[in-house]
Amino acid sequence: MPEQLLWASRAWIRGGWRDAVLLTVDQSGRWSAITEGVSTPPADARRLGGPLLPGMVNAHGHAFQRAFAGLSERRDSHADDFWSWRDRMYQVALRITPQQMQAVAAQLYVELLRGGYTQVCEFHYLHHDQSGQRYPDPATMCWALADAAQEAGLGMTLLPVLYERAGFAQPALRTDQRRFASTPALVHGFCRDALAAQRPLLNAGVAIHSLRAASLESMQQLLHLVGAAAVPIHLHIAEQTQEVDDCLLAHGARPIAWLCDHLPLDARWQLVHATHATDAEIEAVARSAAGIVICPSTEGNLGDGLTNLPGWLQHAVPMAIGSDSHVTRNWPEELRWLEYGQRLLRRQRNVAAAPATQPASAARLFDAALSAGAAAAGQGCWGLVSGARADALVLDATAPALLGIPPSHQLDALVFAGAEPAFAEVMVAGNVVMRHGQHLQQQTIAERYTSVMQELWSAAA
Question: Which residues carry out catalysis?
Answer without folding.
Answer: 273, 324
